[in-house]
Amino acid sequence: MPTVQSAITQMENQLATPTDDGQPNSATEVVADVLDKNKKNSHFLQNVGVKIRNRRSSLQNVQAQLEVERKTNVELQSIVNNQREAMNDLSKQMQETQQARIKDQEENRKKQAVLEVKLELLLGQNRQS
Prior knowledge:
Blueprint: H1 4-16, H2 27-38, H3 43-47, H4 58-128
Helix pairs in contact: 1-2
């Protein structure tokens, strides 16, 4: 069991810290809480009429928090997978567009070469006439 001084320090710290809903802790609840934490079978609290609230064990709290984190992780993983699929689709579209552009450029070069040959033939015929 901790020393009296450490129990007093715990009580002072709890009194200074507001509850989850922002209300100040009552002195009775703080004393009951510290005594409950530091003494496993505190009959004193029951004898003076203070109800000890059922606490979730640390393990239960950790398990509940772990479950919340798992659910969050699954949701985030789903989002990441969806984004990854979208990026892959966009990447494929970009590659297809790039390949089509390269193909068009090659076709245009061939057409230009054919036109240049025809132009040379026409110019050559005009010079001979």
